[in-house]
Here is the input.
Amino acid sequence: MRTQVCIIGGGPSGLLLSQLLHRSGIDTVVLEARSRAYVAGRIRAGLLEWGSVETLRAAGVGARMDRDGIPDDGVVLASQHGDFRIDIKALTGKRMMIYGQTEITADLFSARDAMNGVIIDEVEGVRPHGLDTGAPHVTYSKGGTSYRIDCDWVIGCDGYHGVSRTCIPSDTLKTFERIYPFGWLGVLSETPPVSRKIVYANHPRGFALCSLRNEMLSRYYVQVPADDAVVGWSDDAFWDELRRRLPDSLSDGIVTGPSIEKSIAPLRSFVAEPMRWGRLCLAGDAAHIVPPTGAKGLNLAISDVSYLHDALVAHFGGDDAGIDGYSARALNRVWKAIRFSWWFTSTMHRFPDQNDFDQRIQDSELAYLEASAAAQTVLAEQYVGLPY
Ligand code: FAS
Ligand code: PHB
Here is the structure.
């Protein structure tokens, strides 16, 4: 088989890149290790920057998002000393969109099918070759048969545990990492959300987050120790802990119900440089991971894909400036989101070795944010997403 762009990984990054390139007349093949049902069933992100909204619309997959998504103009920060709202739209002129990653994946699968996009799932042993030549190829197997795809470019959209990043020589690849000593226990429940606003809560017992997917689908998180196990958390224990960490004005309004999804996600900050080596480019979680505090993971994947789409269209038109500048351009935006997510995580979470001084520092950071339009603008422009 031959194609112009072979994409390893059929999550949001790979599917969106395939969709954008196909609409621009560029041939792609997506290789995905898991089944379509598995990929479609993954419950992850829920909050889109405005740049992501515009990119999804440009890809022709914005209709359901515009119909079912919930535009979000602000964010609430809470602590033991009360809560306050930051008006993102008033400060930046832009808004966020609450729309689950699961829905985005479904929209992308539908669009790919409508265009007869080539997605080969449940593949094994994917291996890129000849990345340092002008004629790379990718081998893989499926159902016991081996295959080869000759291509012009290989794009690693295969997430943190994928194969692509390992193809960059160790004397070229540099990684940066911060592992946080806690995780997020997340619950999805078919209950009315306690607030139509997303609420981030700092509490001496630990961080909590109130989010939603729609009027009858709530998404909540509480910080838990890094070695905690979801089996130790009954639904009642979760609801009790969530209430303890929220101001009374919110905790009194929590409507509980059975969890339809309950899982613990570890938190880390991670960046791999460069995001290009020869005819290989990395995008999304294959290149970077952020703690979900700033809701940047999926949004960074989308900006990487937007840059790559523009660069590859120009490349196939004879102009290599975009692809030659892709890694530096993507990393410039990635590192600003990494910093913001690190700052927000450090401000809102309880660290195991934290003392009273540290709690006072967090309290004063929130008090300054509450009182300062300048401080709120700094948070708002990063939260809604820096320009592409
Ligand atoms: P993905 O990991 O989504 O997709 C990579 C794909 O590549 C997978 O389908 C995998 O099966 C496939 N693959 C891997 N190795 C392969 C191989 N060798 N061959 C072929 N295919 C291979 N982000 C937010 O913004 N907000 C959140 O609240 C949030 N919560 C998260 C919770 C969890 C538990 C996790 C893990 C992530 C969360 N994220 C969140 C981040 C998440 O949404 C990612 O940023 C997003 O899925 C990135 O998409 P991809 O880059 O496509 O990577
Ligand atoms: C979510 O709705 O899942 C969500 C919202 C905001 C975050 C992280 C996750 O910062």
Remarks:
- The CA atoms of residues 175 and 277 lie 14 Å apart.
- The pocket of P-hydroxybenzoic acid (ligand 2) is lined by residues 45-47, 198, 211, 219, 292-295 (CB under 6 Å).
- The first strand starts at residue 5 and ends at 8.
- The longest helix spans residues 326-348.
